[in-house]
Amino acid sequence: MTEQAQSERGIGPEYLVAGRYRLRSKLGGGGMGAVWLARDTLLHRDVAVKQVTTTAGLDPDEARRVRERTLREGRNAAKLTHRHSIAMYDVALEAGEPWLVMEYLPSRSLAQAMNIADTLPPLEVAQIGAQVADALVAAHAAGIVHRDIKPGNILVADRGRELGTVKISDFGIARAKGDAAESTNGVITGTPAYFSPEVARGQDPTEASDVFSLGSTLYTVVEGQPPFGIDSDSIALLHRVAKAEIYRPAKAGPLTETLLHLLEPDPARRPTMAEARDALARVAMGGDGDVAHLVGSPVYSADGTIPSWAHRSTPLPPPHRRSKIGSTQAGLPAVPQSTPLKNVPRPLGKLQWPPRPTPPAPGAPEPTVRDQVVAWAPIAMGVMVAILILAVLVAVVVLLAQP
């Protein structure tokens, strides 16, 4: 909804939605609508109220699709009751348009946490992943595919009794089995950096694509960028995703093999969400962990405390310093690829030839000639050793051949 349209309807702080929910302040917003902190005047509790993009000015068919999408989000989220998922309370009608009323969790998202810590330790990421995966197991059991798992949709409570509690949110583009499919004609919706390769190629999202998106999200948090990199050109990024070529994570430690399994190019080779949850729980708890011990618990650091990045007392950086790691987009064209995903090799740490130093961080100086020489040095030494061994073997053979 535009600011002008909001002003005309008086929507803002103190506005009463559906005669019950009094708006307090805007929590955030984007192309899919705005989220407000509100007070439920009947039950006397704080709630989060999602105001969808207005249908004013849209043609009747498009307005109907917007309303149906909002109601679908409400229905899908209402099917899911889990400690690690934001609860859906109500769908309120205001001036004929639906507003979603949800649990309010004072929190920061993993995307915001990355602006504080850049990367999070594998132990903490494994805990987060196991808890979110457990919620998604319940969603899949209810026939719901989330379709937009990313750091911005995973919340961590930053104060109060819930401090450190992890919850997945925003089922805005989720679909349940039996929902009528929208005619997209090769157009896809979501966040390109976290797409699975088959979705980037135009296939319908499935439970397996949710597994890949969770793997991409956890990879991003532990490595500092998504598995296919960051690119302001969404189409170029989409082409990289469709090729399904990623490299072995460098900072994931004990989480590495589990991440690679979640990021299998071929959806048939990926684990189920339940298998992913159990594997993440084993990493989080040292090999013999039971996810039951993690469900409902806050995230703990290695020293047994709630991580500093989760505390509200740790301030977020100013807006101009915050990195962008992807937003939900609609109308993206699918990318046809001739190579079947089953023929794409499992992501490995590929040997570069000729070897090159690690790409510099943004803003860092370009590699010097000395950097190139240093990068070549291990290979050159190996070649020299091989030559010396070969020379010794030749000398021995010559000596033995003499009468």
From TrEMBL:
Protein origin, superkingdom: Bacteria
Keyword set includes RNA-binding: no
Record keywords, A-Z: ATP-binding, Kinase, Membrane, Nucleotide-binding, Serine/threonine-protein kinase, Transferase, Transmembrane, Transmembrane helix
Gene Ontology terms, MF aspect: ATP binding; protein serine/threonine kinase activity
Biased composition (Polar residues): 325-341
Pfam families: Pkinase
EC number(s) reported in the record: 2.7.11.1
Biased composition (Pro residues): 354-365
Domain Protein kinase: 21-283
Gene3D superfamilies to which the protein is assigned, alphabetical: Phosphorylase Kinase, domain 1, Transferase(Phosphotransferase) domain 1
Chain intervals for the UniProt region annotation (Disordered): 314-367
Top-level EC class: transferase
Keyword Membrane annotated: yes
Listed transmembrane segments: 375-401
Residues at which ATP binds: 50
PANTHER family with a match to the protein in the record: MITOGEN-ACTIVATED PROTEIN KINASE KINASE KINASE 20-RELATED, SERINE_THREONINE-PROTEIN KINASE NEKL-3
Protein name as it appears in the record: non-specific serine/threonine protein kinase
